[in-house]
Amino acid sequence: MKRLLGVALGILTAIGGFVDIGDLVTNAVVGSRFGLSLVWVVVVGVIGICLFAQMSGRVAAVSGRATFEIIRERLGPRAGLANLAASFLINLLTLTAEVGGVALALQLASSVEPTLWVPVAAFAVWLVIWRVKFSVMENVTGLLGLTLIVFAVAVFLLHPDWAELAGQAMAPSVPAGETGGAYWYYAVALFGAAMTPYEVFFFSSGAVEEKWTRKDISQSRLNVVIGFPLGGILSISIAACAAIVLMPRGIEVTTLSQVVQPVVEAGGKLALAFVLVGVVAATFGAALETTLSSGYTLAQFFGWSWGKFRRPAQAARFHIAMIVCLLIGLGILATGVDPILVTEYSVVFSAVALPLTYIPILIVANDKQYMGRDVNGRLTNAFGMIYLVIIVVAAVAAIPLMIVTGAGA
Amino acid sequence: MKYRRPPAAQRMVAAAVLAALTGSVLSGCATMSGGATGDAARSVSDAASAAQSAALAFEQHLGERTTDAATGVTLDDMLDEVQTAATSVAELEVSTADEREVRQTAAATIRECSDSIVAAREQVSDPGVTSDAGALLHRLEAAADAASELGDELEERQ
Amino acid sequence: MTELDPAPEYHGQVLDAELNLLDRQVLDVDEVPVTVVDDLELSDVPWGEPIPPGTPAPVITALLSGPVLGTRIFGGRPPASRLHRIAWRHVADVGIVVRLGIRGGELDVTWVERWVRDHIIAHIPGGRHDPE
């Protein structure tokens, strides 16, 4: 019974923790402009993150080594440092977007300016990282994030034309008034939002935090393989809500307040309450994960003592690095930059950076010295190679598409 | 097995970065198409989208289906969007009389969007101000529809 | 290029310095991360002189860390006084990590960690307690 509860909890937190500000914004923007014609990208992205997270979790469980230790060890100091710089900066951008997202969600609930909420949110993130146990942190934000299921409920309450939605999803085409360039730009953005690299840093480091061993692999595989696709359904619901309510009115999403409008249309104040709790939990949870990821990447590259299972005094540089990253994020938001804009850039650059983490993990997951008998099976490697191609193509296409389309305008 | 710093992977990453950079440089010259009319069309469409969103929020407010806080924030956000559109129209460089006329029409249409959003915003923060909220909603919807139409028309004309 | 004599027989594990040592995580006797092996220090070989036959091969004297990472990437060499050394005799085991037989807390390589701990982290309330 206890084991069953553990499995259920793991799956539920995986669902609730799947969505972050990148998924919320990108899916709503795409839904309002392209309907469900990009749903296939979410499906491709979710399968990819399952594959990738499962692989990095298995490497961490078997070898006890987290992602960036492996990157340094495999790529050497030069390429490793270049990789660290790129991954770290993009993670910092994502961290900034998540903290900004918390502030925007709190503004919707309270009408207090986001610039006033930003320091509160950043302080709360730090406090949780400083004092709260890893498992408590993961479970609370993951379970509260489940309230985002209201997006899926809203789809039903809106009584959409199911045939039309299915048509958009099954026979994708570029809607009138949009260009092919913008379509593919948002395809890359959606892919980056589903497969953000920080999820992998976090997943593998989390496995070390929770002291996984070989026998935890099957449980973690279950969490990923059931939890992430259900989280992906939440992502698709966000896009569907926007496609049903906003697209026919000619509304293109540019703010978080527009992301929740369809839910209000469907379920009124109660639904609004649910969605606000969900957005705060999802963005706050992701802010914790990205902040920790910034500490993980630096500490693992330089070999510092790290981990929330240690007292802060026993992982001093790890904690000071995270404090500095939060302060930098605060500084960026204090300039008054729109967090939604930061989010849109962060998902595209995430797509650019994906090969940097994906390739070393794929290599080490095949290394017998690390993995012993738990090296990748044939099926995993076949999928691994297909995704290698997809990831490299998306990474290469991202920046040219961004420039050609004026960032999707 | 002396397998370290996989050259294939490294070369692939280098190639990816190089290709991305080349792509950026090659496409760096591309600008938005359509000249002044095209720019005006885009700004008017942005304003139309924001006004439609504001109308939806105000309608939800009148139906008491949402909170004052959420309505207020949505209207403020949309007002920002409309004002950004107004600024970019005002800054358009026009060379012909035709384009000057386009700019004038666009500015007037966007102005009506922002005026009606401001009126709705006042109504939300102080319900005693206006008597006829229903008429206000109609005005907001009309402004949004006018902007949508103008946006489509300009889009075709460019 | 003259033929080299075949490498002498060794008893025990054969290590490839680049493959098994460089850029590996170093853990102390309590499994606490200490550093990453940024570089290695070898016993002196005279520079620019012919090496007389029968000279013993150089041996690794220490694992290095600190500014040497920068010079390994960008070239050059820091003064010997600035190298942070972990003497080779403290190395207990080399696997996918390098394990030391001593505690890392007192080593030179962890002075920054100690400084940050004593001057910043320890002054923030809760810094010395377990998370709850």
- Round the Cα radius of gyration of chain A to an integer and report it: 20 Å
Main sheet strand line-up of chain C: 2-1-7-6
Largest interface: A-B, 44 and 44 residues
Count helical runs of chain C.
3
- Percent in strands of chain C: 15-25%
Number of strands of chain C: 7
Secondary-structure topology with pairs:
The complex is a heterotrimer of chains A (409), B (158) and C (132).
Chain A: H1 2-16, H2 21-34, H3 39-63, H4 67-110, H5 114-131, H6 134-145, H7 150-157, H8 162-170, H9 180-194, H10 197-209, H11 217-246, H12 256-302, H13 316-334, H14 339-364, H15 368-371, H16 378-404
Helix pairs in contact in A: 1-6, 1-11, 2-9, 2-11, 2-12, 2-14, 3-9, 3-10, 3-11, 3-14, 4-5, 4-10, 4-12, 4-13, 4-14, 5-12, 5-13, 6-12, 7-11, 7-12, 9-14, 9-16, 10-12, 11-12, 12-13, 14-16
Chain B: H1 7-27, H2 35-62, H3 68-90, H4 97-125, H5 133-157
Helix pairs in contact in B: 2-3, 2-4, 2-5, 3-4, 4-5
Chain C: H1 17-21, E1 25-27, E2 33-36, E3 39-42, E4 60-65, H2 68-74, E5 84-87, E6 91-94, E7 98-100, H3 111-119
Structure description:
The complex is a heterotrimer of chains A (409), B (158) and C (132). Helix content of chain A is 80%, strand content 0%. By secondary structure, chain A is mainly alpha-helical. Chain A has one domain: Hydantoin permease, CATH 1.10.4160.10. In chain A, helix 4 (67-110) runs antiparallel to helix 14 and helix 11 packs antiparallel against helix 12. Chain B has 158 residues and is an all-alpha fold. Chain B has a single domain, classed as Four Helix Bundle (Hemerythrin (Met), subunit A) (Up-down Bundle), CATH 1.20.120. Chain B has helices at 7-27, 35-62, 68-90, 97-125, 133-157. Chain C has a single domain, classed as Roll (SH3 type barrels). Helix content of chain C is 16%, strand content 21%. In chain C, strand 6 and strand 7 (98-100) form a beta hairpin. Chain C starts with 16 loop residues before the first helix and ends in a 13-residue tail after the last helix.
For this entry, give a set of tags.
heterotrimer; A: 409 residues; mainly alpha; Hydantoin permease; 16 helices; globular; C: 132 residues; alpha+beta; SH3 type barrels; four-stranded mixed sheet; three-stranded antiparallel sheet; 3 helices; 16% helix; elongated
